[in-house]
Design a protein that fits this description.
- The protein is mostly helical.
- It contains 14 helices and five strands.
- α2 packs parallel to α4, α11 runs antiparallel to α14 and α13 runs antiparallel to α14.
């Protein structure tokens, strides 16, 4: 009788001894680097995954066939457990990955004993399939655990991932080219270290600094001060209501109220119980607000100019991660579009747009996507105010006259 062919993983047709061999060295990049499967090992993994898809057999299968299926699954588990231990060693720098591997290895090693049954085959198949999928994911190419950790920690400190940014696992998996399980392990580790915040069961966000609410209020107060100094709201007039300012600044009522209280403390406003705040006489002495240099003359109209304001607003609403250079480019393009809106035809909306377009980008940097969204919203409003109303279409035969072809 011929001996069975050697398994690509162990090189021997015999079962792996009860004592696990010494784990293989970590991946080429050291701990945290993904291990690489040879072509033979990859083929064996695919074959064993296909085996899991075929089992268990129907319940009317003979007891001998069920016992053979259970023996085959135990054999496959014995062969893959040592490699799984090697994967665990390679990913030991991640506490989440280590705990995940421990759970998988426990399920693989403490498998059902006793007479084989269909239920035991189902449990063995589940343990083998989960172990093989984890090995396949661990050996997949892409950024290692240590590289992913450095990517996020550096990105948060440098401002690439701004406070409030929602991290989408699906989008990050595509952008970074790494397995979803590896990315999830890193994000879970960063959440445990308080580098990320959890918002709901599945949503992770970059935390906002402790002074975030005060910073938002100061931003709104600064913009209102600049608008008062620019003459948009002379002394004796009233600002829009709290809800109106919230629509203008794309925020809730709390930061608006805090900003109004800041200005009231400086003697610029009187905040009534209802209605808009009243601008007081000391506002006449405000110095002119700081202005940024006019936008450089860029290219002519582009196809995406109509879509840019809505894109920038959705970018802020969804808290997308935006590189700093992209923000600067969007800011310059929005200012060019704002300069093309005739201020005399758009009234107060045009003056508000002019003030926002001439304001410098705020600090800290995480406020900049918000500032761009406010500017984009003002651009849309001013465009709507400047565009002439659509002419009313009059029926050629009067409202009650039928068309000629229906007579």
């Amino acid at each position: 009788m011929t001996a069975p062919p050697p398994h690509p993983l162990t090189g021997s047709p015999d079962r792996v001894p009860a004592k696990d061999p010494d784990p293989a060295p970590a991946g080429p990049g050291g701990p945290g680097a993904p291990l690489a499967l040879t072509s033979a090992q990859s083929g064996a993994l695919r074959a064993d995954l296909a085996l899991c898809a075929r089992l268990p057999r129907p319940r009317f299968t003979s007891a001998a066939a069920v016992a053979n299926d259970a023996a085959v699954l135990r054999e496959r588990l014995d062969r893959w457990v040592p490699f799984a231990r090697t994967c665990r060693t390679a990913e030991i720098i991640s506490l989440t990955a280590t705990a995940r591997w421990d759970e998988l290895l426990t399920a693989a090693e403490h498998r059902p004993t006793g007479p084989a049954s269909t239920d035991s085959v189902i449990l063995l198949r589940a343990a083998l399939r989960q172990l093989l999928r984890a090995i396949d994911s661990s050996a997949a190419p892409g950024l290692s655990i240590s590289e992913l950790t450095e990517h996020f920690t550096t990105g948060i400190s440098s401002g690439r991932y701004l406070p409030g940014t929602v991290l989408s696992r699906t989008a990050l998996t595509k952008a970074l080219g790494c397995p979803r399980e590896r990315l999830t392990d890193v994000l879970t580790d960063l959440t445990a270290d308080s580098i990320l915040d959890r918002r709901g069961p599945q949503q992770l966000v970059v935390p906002v600094p402790e002074d975030g609410p005060q910073t938002r209020a100061r931003y709104i107060a600064g913009r209102l001060t600049a608008q008062i100094a620019a003459g948009l709201y002379p002394p004796g007039t009233r600002l829009p209501t709290t809800s109106g300012l919230g629509r203008l600044f794309l925020c809730g009522a709390d930061p608006v109220r805090a900003a109004l209280q800041l200005l009231a403390g400086k003697g610029l406003l009187q905040v009534p119980g209802k209605g808009g705040a009243l601008v007081l006489a000391p506002a006449l002495g405000l110095p002119p607000p700081p202005r940024s240099a006019p936008p450089a003359a860029g290219p002519g109209p582009r196809d995406d100019d109509v879509l840019l304001p809505d894109y920038v607003r959705r970018q802020w609403r969804n808290r997308r991660s935006v590189p700093a250079e992209n923000l600067t480019g969007q800011w310059e393009r929005l200012r060019i579009l704002a300069a093309a809106v005739p201020a005399q035809d758009s009234g107060r909306d045009g003056l508000l747009l002019t003030e926002l377009a001439s304001a410098p980008l705020p600090d800290p940097p995480w406020l900049r996507p918000w500032h761009l969204a406010v500017l984009a919203a003002a651009l849309v409003t001013a465009r709507r105010a400047a565009s002439p109303p659509a002419a009313e279409v009059t029926h050629p035969y009067g409202p009650d006259q039928p068309d000629s072809h229906t007579r």
